[in-house]
Amino acid sequence: MPETQTRTQIDQTLSPIGGLSHVRGETSRALIERTIAQVFADTVARHGDREALVCRDAGVRYTWREFAGQVDLLAAGLAALGLEKGDRIGIWSPNRLEWVLTQFATARVGLILVNINPAYRLSELEYVLNKVGCKALVSAASFKTSDYLGMLQTLAPELADCAPNALQSGRLPHLRLVVRMGDEVSPGMLNFADVLEHGRKAPIDLDEITATLTANEPINIQFTSGTTGAPKGATLTHRNILNNADNTVGRMNFTEQDRLCIPVPLYHCFGMVMGTLGCMTRGAAMIFPSEGFEPVATLQAVADERCTGLYGVPTMFVAMLDAPGFDRFDLSSLRTGIMAGAPCPIEVMKRVVSAMHMNEVTIAYGMTETSPVSFQSHTDDPLDKRVATVGRVHPHVEVKVVNEHDEIVPIGETGELLTRGYSVMLKYWDDPERTAESIDAEGWMHTGDQAVIDAQGYCAIVGRIKDMVIRGGENIYPREVEEFLYRHPAVQAVQCFGVPDKKYGEELCAWIILKPGAKADEQQIREFCKGQIAHYKIPRYVRFVDDLPMTVTGKPQKFLMREAMAGELGTG
Predict the structure, then answer these.
(1) Which candidate, 32, 248, 353, 556, has a CA 20 to 30 Å from the CA of 318?
(2) pTM of the entire predicted model
């Protein structure tokens, strides 16, 4: 929000229209109508000698000029290997330097970056690579219990005998090039350093390629599961994510003086839009404390790097507040940040403000399909508003709450939240039917979330029409897990749903009817899931039942299952 606007002017601008649950964001600051590469070049020109990126695990520090030099080497290397504008290139890795370099290098030459969840397993990896036709994949060797290269070699055993950049795989027919991180050499793959070396030697005119790019072209695909099962590839443009990043950090009053600690994952919009792109638009420094979230490492990074901002989901903040030796970390440099991904308990918010010095912490709400943020609190909003609501509508975004007849409901009434504006995704990749189900003819994105907007324009999310489960900030879509469990030879019917949990907010529960004569126990069901679906999607609770509560029309009544499990577990 521009500094020239007073609180009264802000209140007037963002108030609902005509007594209805309909709000529009302010438009005093024009949208960015350029590409990521163009804005990146401007940032380097203005702030070239300022620190841009710190990866503490790797011991790397780059100024904006140094960072841009590495980005250009990688971009030239990818182009020299035959990748062209519009080709899809996957990135499968925890938070590493290579991830950030790949993000900006692909944007430099118009390659569409495909974010792959580091927790994915075989069936999920195979599906997403084939769905969008990834021609190349940049992958870590491993992380925690995930053997990425092992899984790739299982799906594409042809790697053992092929030349690098010449893969021809039966199960991954589009994939030609695998770039692995690290110094070890793997058959059929190039090392990340090899691609940088290609860039040093290649006679590639990057500026000539960049000049052909436009703001409304797709540059990023992020997979978001749906209630109909298979993940959908939300396709986002330069204009989508660049403006959302700029507006998000703008609401926190970011400048080149800020230093943002980013412990949230890069594969998600939280990390690579609100985090890296947000910093780039203002010339702020990006600080990565560790490859995956570690409370102590994050606190140490904030203290050592004098971070002014910190991102996280509520469970991350709880883990930091409860970390051993919390009081020994000097967090006095902190000013702001974002808490998003799940509702925030008021006591947690109070502790974050007081103990972590985050007086200007903000709350944000959105979805991948809207780039992601639609609502965000202001740095000076009252504490109760920052807990009970998700703030007010973002600039250049229009939102309404409607009933089942698509009529806008009065202020204070519940309905489905619909979003329209620059932030709405281009489409679901190669899925016109599900795109049309989500984005109507007038450009409204139907979120599936139930919301209430008050007289001041503050929005509260009160439910999820699609029964999505949020476990510690990770979205779980029950239908996807159900369809996987149907592959088990003993399962006749299954329903998955969320149950309350003190630590994660929600945990996933599966109710299963076994086939006649079949046997299985809870541990066997979990073992069946391991290595095939992400760990956070594996049901925490499994119950075997004789029947499932249904409506007279045969629809499962998950609310009855949820109530029964909450009673059994004593979670309310």
Answers:
(1) 248
(2) 0.86
Q: Give the position of tokens 């008050």.
A: 454
* Token pair in block for residue 90: 């996957």
CA–CA distance, 93 with 268 (Å, rounded to integer): 12
| Whole-angstrom Cα Rg for the chain | 23
**Sign of the dihedral defined by the CA atoms of residues 172, 175, 181, 184, in that order:** positive
Q: Running DSSP on this structure, what letter comes out for residue 158? A: G
Q: What is the pLDDT of residues 104-121, one digit of tens each?
A: 999 999 999 999 999 899
Q: Which residue has the tokens 């709405």?
A: 424
Q: From start to end of 275-348, where are the E strands?
A: 285-288, 309-312, 336-339
Do residues 361 and 380 lie in contact, with contact meaning Cβ atoms separated by under 8 Å?
no
The percentage of the chain sitting over the pLDDT mark of 70, rounded to a whole number, equals 96
Q: What would the pLDDT profile of 301-323 be if each residue is shown by its tens digit?
A: 999 999 999 999 888 998 999 99
**8 Å CB contact between 269 and 372:** yes
| Omega prior to 372 cis, within 30 of 0 | yes
* pLDDT for position 180: 98
Distance CA 266, CA 486 (A): 31
Q: 522: which residues sit within 8 A by CB, 6+ positions away?
A: 542
β-strands 177-180, 190-191 pairing? parallel
Q: What is the residue whose two structure tokens read 């974002």?
A: 338
At residue 247's C-alpha, the angle toward residues 245 and 252, to 5°, is 100
Please return the burial class of 182, using the count of CB atoms within 10 Å of its CB with bins 0-12, 13-18 and 19+. middle
Which among 126, 148, 307, 115 has a CA at the least distance from the CA of 218? Answer: 115
**397 vs 211: CA distance, rounded Å:** 29
Nearest to 365 by CA among 387, 383, 332, 335: 387
Q: Which residues pair with 439 in a beta bridge?
A: 445
pLDDT of 4 over the 60 cut: no
What is the pLDDT, as a whole number, of residue 1? 37
Q: What is the dihedral of CA 81, 132, 418, 474, to 10 degrees?
A: -90
Cβ burial of 555 (10 Å; 0-12, 13-18, 19+) is exposed
- Among 465, 31, 79, 520, CA closest to 244: 31
Burial class of residue 140 in the structure, from the number of CB atoms within 10 Å of its CB (0-12 exposed, 13-18 middle, 19+ buried): buried
**What is residue 224's three-state secondary structure?**
strand
pLDDT band at 468 (very low <50, low <70, confident <90, very high): confident
What is the pLDDT at residue 551?
59
